[in-house]
Amino acid sequence: MSRPDPYARAREALIVALDVPSFEDARRVIDQLEEDVRIFKVGSQLFTACGPVVVRYLLARGKQVFLDLKFHDIPNTVAGAVRAAVGLGEPGHQQMDERQNAVEFTQKGLFMCTLHTLGGEEMLRRAVEAATQEARRLGVRRPLLVGITVLTSQKAGDNIPQLVLQRAVLARRAGLDGVVASTGEAAMLRRELGEDFVVVTPGIRPRGAALGDQKRVSTPRDALREGSRFLVVGRPILQAADPSRAARDVLAEMQEVFEDSR
Predict the structure, then answer these.
(1) Distant-in-sequence, close-in-space partners of 258: CB < 8 Å, separation ≥ 6
(2) Is the pLDDT of residue 94 over 60?
(3) pLDDT digits (tens, 9 = 90+) for 183-202
(4) Active site residue 215
(5) Which end of the chain has less Cβ packing within 10 Å, N or C?
(6) CA distance 181 to 159
């Protein structure tokens, strides 16, 4: 009989950012974190370097994919891009393994996708419609659609909470599932928009970790306590001497919060 996973709840909330320059680098990280991480973020650097292959590789490995391309363009263009993103998880696609054998997806459909709220309500609404229709057509789940509010690399200021709330309200009105926001705004968003509204928080730094280019950061414990649903961690895990150990340390800190909240 297998033992219960001590980090079961935390694994549902931790997203590791594959902010690496190549597919080979990504594959190495995925191998290192195979037993520890369920959700990986693919951003503009990696997607530009190797395209959809990394998304399909993750799906074939049974991982969930957060596609963070921050779509922002005219409504028709973004609707088409989101439709194509949903199609990345089409069961008809196959991923070739290193021996050039076809392997079937074990995950069907993206887990999450970002759009920039600066694109406006029509753009966001058209994206939701396109994602819903394409997911239904393909028989895959529709990814969670979350809006970018204010980047966590921007310095804190008096007007940031107001901007974040305005853009989050716009996102919800357009039908998005949630937003990306820092811990500093999570409690406010939870209070104003309810428990079902998803808050994804990047800029997570375990206690003692370097801040890098992030300005509005927090620990995993503080982010969860303030109301963040998903935490995105990159460099503190990727640049650790032992990435697997670093991931488990983050999971342990997160799990403590979930245990305390029971």
Answers:
(1) 9, 10, 224
(2) no
(3) 889 999 999 999 999 999 99
(4) no
(5) N
(6) 14
